[in-house]
Amino acid sequence: MDSYVETTGIESSKALWLGIAFSFTFTGLIWLAGEFWMDPSRFAQFSPRRLAALLPQMWYLWQLNEPTVWTRTTAWGGYIAHNLFIWFLIWKAQSSNSKYTSKLHRFNVYALVGNAFFIAMHLLQTRFWYDGLAQDVSEFTSQASVTLVLVAILIMENDRRGMVFGAKAPFLSNAGRAIRKYHGYYFSWAIIYTFWYHPMEITGGHLLGFLYMFFLLLQGSLFYTRTHVNHYWKVVSELSVVIHGVMVAILAGQQWPQFFGGFLGMFIVTQMHGLGLSKAARWGIGLSYAFAILTIYSLTEGIARAYMVTLIPLVEFILVALVSLLVLFILKLVQLRQKSTAA
Q1: Radius of gyration of the chain from its Cα atoms, rounded to whole angstroms
Q2: How far apart are CA 223 and CA 238, in angstroms?
């Protein structure tokens, strides 16, 4: 047996709790570093907002006005090394036909330690060179990559929890199976890309964003363990976007109730129906959500604008359809190629 896939004596559930503790601790360390260790003059070196940019409202402020070879090399080098490292472990696990267990495999240990190493390296990289990938790519690419992760989860989980109030969408089954087989490569890329996109700054949006990334990196490190498919932990990973999205909206002066109600609405419509809750519990949670949304909008933008909370679920469901069609199209092309090769 390949040493990478050997099981250890470490329970994956214990690794999860230690990983959560590490995530909160390192988020606190980022704040301490930003307050007492980072260059206090770094804000004066930021690149000014460029009104001529393709999407000026999405101009990313936390990038240096004068990047150097070293700022780019350390950011892109860290990102590429991190990504290739995790992809290698996924490939080793899949090529060895690994099975799900309650204990960690060696590749899980390597992934956990490796991710912790790259997290620490990113903090050092921020301190001495600052820039992330934002210097060279749009913030839209970072947001879109993580959005597609959430969409892919909806497709994969459709057969188990349904898409809308427990109702399944049968046409998503084939796409769901294909995504489930290869999702590790895309998910790890999207998460690591977003992780290296941002410098480790100390705004509320950055801190909660990195905490969210730490949770996703932790979830990705536990592949082929029972904890990786634990329904409650998976929903926690999905719901973490609510807090981050609301904080970013508040700091950006955007409509935070829309993000709060939209992302939490996905829990009401889709995610909670895979937790084994009773019908009464689901009704209670749903009615509480409706009451909270009406109260929030009555105190902020007016109840007439409460419909805005439907926009995020609507966009995600549209993307579910589009991504599924794309996956099915690719599967069809592969089948046609296999038939032509066999002939």
Answers
A1: 21
A2: 16
Q: If you ran DSSP here, which 8-state letter would residue 201 be given?
A: -
Q: CA 312, 156, 230 angle in degrees (round to 5)?
A: 100
CB atoms inside a 10 Å sphere around CB 45: 12
Dump strand ranges (E) for 136-244. none
Give the pair of three-digit tokens for residue 306: 């409460």
Q: Is the dihedral of CA 5, 8, 14, 17 positive or negative?
A: negative
Q: Encode pLDDT of 11-51 as tens digits.
A: 999 999 999 999 999 999 999 999 988 877 777 777 776 65
Q: Which residue has the tokens 């890309």?
A: 193
Beta bridge partners of 105: 7
The answer to whether residues 10 and 111 touch, using CB atoms and an 8 Å cutoff, is: no
Instruction: Look at residues 108, 63, 64 and name the one whose alpha carbon lies nearest to residue 90.
Output: 108
CB of 225 closer than 8 Å to CB of 12: yes
The dihedral sign for the CA sequence 247, 145, 214, 35 = negative
Exposed, middle or buried by CB within 10 Å (0-12, 13-18, 19+), for 7? middle
Average pLDDT score, the chain: 91
Confidence of residue 253 (pLDDT cuts 50, 70, 90): confident
